[in-house]
Amino acid sequence: MTAFYAIIPSRMKSTRLPEKPLKDIAGRPMVVRVAERALASGATDVIVATDHPDIVKACETYGVKVVLTSENHPTGTDRLAETVTKLGLDDEAIVVNVQGDEPLIPTAVVREVAELLAAHPECEMATAGHPIEDIEEFMNPNVVKVVRDAQGNAITFSRAPIPWPRDAFREDKTKLPDGLNPLRHIGLYAYRVKFLKRYPHWQQAPIEKWESLEQLRALYYGVKIAVAVLPGALPAGVDTQEDLDRVREVYAQGKI
């Protein structure tokens, strides 16, 4: 089994669900539940990276490793860079970024992106996507799309509908043409530590600025990103009280 670390960035900045990381799910804070999922994936170690002392306290209460980081990181990737430096991880070590608001994340998918990166030494990142099935999702700018090359690496990511089926859409824009097979990007990443150490020193890429997609900075500076294709969407994360209620019900029914 591939050796990898899981790092969970966790902040208190949510406006739709204040103090989101500390919300109770079946008797434990959400950030602890996410850490449990990450550990169940087979990670060598699981670390929460946070800028808030209350999250530190919650993690320590339940025996979850935690690193207190700066409050001023512009992205989660920058927070991970500080964390791997503090931990003294080897440059070739693999780190999976598990979002702190995804307590239902399938453990197999966390492991899959780590194993994908381990299998591709030419890549410094790995991520995942799944097929887009309908035209509304394809056209939605809140749905990030990814296009892969012949080796399964990312060519680009965009909020725009890509690849654009020019000729087919001249005839009919109400459905996806047969054979298009667009992919929705899933925000789950594996990194090599050496990449994380370099990333904060790169200036923001123009395409990253316009698309508001930080992974485009990596492509802009020549980093190869391997992309796994999953059969379908992952369980939704927690952004609202309704989401939290849904997740609590899953735990209450013992479905996880």
From TrEMBL:
Q: Which reaction does it catalyse?
A: 3-deoxy-alpha-D-manno-oct-2-ulosonate + CTP = CMP-3-deoxy-beta-D-manno-octulosonate + diphosphate
One of this protein's Pfam families, by short name?
A: CTP_transf_3
Highest taxon above the source species: Bacteria
Q: Which organism is it from?
A: Parasutterella secunda
UniProt keyword annotation of Amino-acid biosynthesis present: no
Q: Which GO terms describe its molecular function?
A: 3-deoxy-manno-octulosonate cytidylyltransferase activity
Q: State the protein's name.
A: 3-deoxy-manno-octulosonate cytidylyltransferase
UniProt pathway? Nucleotide-sugar biosynthesis; CMP-3-deoxy-D-manno-octulosonate biosynthesis; CMP-3-deoxy-D-manno-octulosonate from 3-deoxy-D-manno-octulosonate and CTP: step 1/1
Which family, according to UniProt?
Belongs to the KdsB family.
Localization of this protein: Cytoplasm
Mostly located where? Answer: cytoplasm
Q: What does this protein do?
A: Activates KDO (a required 8-carbon sugar) for incorporation into bacterial lipopolysaccharide in Gram-negative bacteria.
**What EC number(s) does the entry state?**
2.7.7.38
